[in-house]
């Protein structure tokens, strides 16, 4: 059985390093020869297997916070299934002004036509008598659902080692066969390949399996419309409080760092859903796209570790909170923790659905309607409810960011009233406390919030009367800002340059050097 490419000669390999179970070799000789190099890089984890989880990663030694656990280059990169037409070389949205001269798929220019990423669908789309024609731009276009599957299927004939890694991934074929997603794939991927692209080389079952592999294992790369498949990264199991952070570098390599200390023998996890969502939403996402129910401590606790991220205010008494009962994983009813009041699960779902629609309708960048949402929900949802936390995060980022002048309060930080400056700081601190609990370590969310928090505190410092600026208390405040700015700059610059966060990280670095010179003057 081929398990990958030999680390020494690149030939298809059938053996792996017995320690990390990852690096592959074609022979014992090559493994011996490689040990001198491999010894230093042999990973801090091993691949294990269990009935419940399938393959998973376990720490083979204590791993320290911030340590890089793995760096993995993509096996396949492609556009997300649901996407507007994007350039198949660089993934930026296209409008049809340039198309590949060989196959007809829209691209942004001749340079992207030469990009190897585009090779698979380019060659596979040439069975048609005429070139591919895309008409609908600037809206979701189903034609693109076949691209990433085609890039995977291409490996079958062109890269045995990568195909072997890919086809070992979990596809959950049995569970998917009876779902809507299977029907949609039949029409938009299988039939489209056969009827429109005239591709007949692949078995229907292979195509469906690849669609399953993409859904279950693909990492959505934040920012651009890209989905990536990673041979080692796909082995990370899910946890609703992951012990690692996940970023993608400039080459779109997946970088997994320890978020906290991970003792030897512990499982290494990432989050397949958004750690800031409530339990019901996380479960829905995991059961419908990854085909398992999570039963971590957070999911089993109706209070979500005391945060009440999903709790509602009691419909009868003033102080109680309503929680799913008997268990958040299978509730029969929602019950107040302070009086005998109960409401049905249907009622809660309907109520949250309606409120969710209102949340979606909140005008982007609208401070007033976001504050109005918080006010209106304060008697209905717990203080930390995930809907409210979502709006608080948006507000924390909006206050003082300038931009649209249609909103009266949408001013620069320097023009923000004292009350609103305080409000920004409070919102940052509230959401940061939740982010640190559910997404521990140097998460992107922490980076973003630290940047906003230090901005508010530095402005507070700037407004101090001159004589108060040089007290030890204010110097301490500024010192704290410098530490937050440094951390934000480090965290955000770990993101790919395709993302806005990376550029905010660069800005943070510049601001830090200004702040450092102010602090030096103090000394
Ligand atoms: C990305 S794959 C992880 C690797 C996979 N275990 C394998 O053997 O290839 C995701 C699948 O792993 C399993 N899995 C991951 N985390 C899990 C968890 N916390 N509880 C149960 N199953 C989990 C589920 O079957 C899920 O669909």
Automatic annotation (TrEMBL):
Q: Which residues form the SET domain?
A: 43-273
Keyword Mitochondrion in record: no
- Spell out the PROSITE patterns in the cross-references: SET (PS50280), ZF_MYND_1 (PS01360), ZF_MYND_2 (PS50865)
Kindly provide the name given to this protein in its UniProt entry: Protein msta
For this UniProt record, the keywords arranged alphabetically read as follows: Metal-binding, Zinc, Zinc-finger
Q: Which organism is it from?
A: Scylla paramamosain
- A Pfam family recorded for this sequence: zf-MYND
> Entry's Gene3D superfamilies?
1.10.220.160, 6.10.140.2220, SET domain
- InterPro entries on file: SET_dom, SET_dom_sf, SET_SmydA-8, Znf_MYND
Specify whether Transmembrane helix is a keyword of the entry: no
């Amino acid at each position: 059985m081929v398990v990958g490419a030999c680390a020494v000669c690149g030939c298809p390999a059938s053996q792996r390093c017995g320690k990390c179970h990852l690096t592959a070799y074609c022979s014992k000789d090559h493994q011996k020869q490689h040990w001198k190099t491999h010894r230093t890089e042999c990973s801090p984890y091993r691949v294990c297997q269990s009935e419940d989880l399938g393959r998973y990663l376990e720490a083979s030694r204590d791993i320290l916070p911030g340590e890089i656990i793995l760096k993995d280059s993509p096996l396949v990169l492609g556009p997300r299934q649901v996407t507007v037409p994007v350039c198949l070389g660089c993934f930026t949205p296209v409008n049809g002004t340039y198309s590949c001269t060989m196959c007809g798929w829209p691209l942004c220019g001749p340079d992207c036509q030469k990009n190897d990423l585009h090779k698979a669908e380019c060659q596979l789309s040439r069975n048609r008598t005429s070139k591919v024609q895309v008409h609908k731009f600037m809206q979701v276009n189903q034609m693109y659902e076949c691209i990433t599957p085609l890039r995977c299927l291409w490996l079958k004939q062109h890269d045995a080692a990568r195909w072997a890694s890919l086809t070992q991934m979990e596809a959950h074929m049995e569970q998917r066969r009876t779902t809507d997603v299977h029907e949609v794939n039949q029409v938009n991927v299988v039939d489209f390949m056969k009827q429109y692209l005239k591709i007949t080389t692949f078995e229907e079952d292979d195509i469906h399996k690849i669609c399953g592999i993409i859904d279950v294992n693909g990492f959505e790369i934040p920012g651009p419309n890209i989905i990536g498949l990673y041979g080692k990264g796909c082995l990370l199991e899910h946890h609703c409080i992951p012990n690692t952070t996940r970023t993608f570098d400039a080459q779109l390599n997946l970088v997994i760092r320890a978020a906290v200390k991970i003792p030897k023998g512990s499982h290494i996890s990432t989050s397949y859903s958004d750690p800031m969502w409530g339990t019901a939403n996380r479960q829905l996402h995991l059961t419908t796209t990854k085909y398992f129910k999570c039963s971590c401590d957070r999911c089993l606790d109706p209070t979500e570790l005391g945060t009440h991220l999903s709790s509602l205010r009691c419909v009868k008494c003033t102080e109680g909170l309503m929680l799913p009962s008997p268990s958040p994983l299978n509730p029969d009813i929602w019950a107040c923790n302070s009086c005998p009041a109960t409401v049905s699960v249907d009622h809660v779902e309907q109520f949250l659905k309606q409120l969710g629609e209102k949340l979606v309708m909140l005008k982007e960048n609208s401070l007033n309607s976001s504050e109005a949402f918080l006010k209106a929900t304060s008697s209905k949802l717990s203080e930390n409810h995930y809907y409210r936390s979502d709006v608080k995060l948006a507000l924390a980022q909006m206050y003082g960011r300038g931009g649209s002048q249609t909103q009266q309060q949408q001013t620069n930080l320097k023009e923000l009233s004292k009350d609103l400056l305080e409000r920004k700081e409070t919102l940052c601190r509230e959401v940061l406390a939740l982010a640190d609990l559910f997404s521990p370590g140097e998460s992107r969310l922490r980076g973003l919030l630290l940047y906003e928090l230090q901005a508010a505190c530095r402005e507070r410092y700037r407004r101090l009367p001159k004589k108060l600026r040089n007290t030890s208390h204010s110097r301490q405040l500024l010192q704290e800002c410098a530490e937050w700015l440094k951390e934000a700059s480090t965290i955000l610059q770990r993101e790919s340059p395709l993302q806005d966060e990376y550029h905010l990280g660069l800005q943070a670095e510049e601001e830090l050097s200004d702040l450092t010179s102010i602090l030096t003057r103090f000394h």
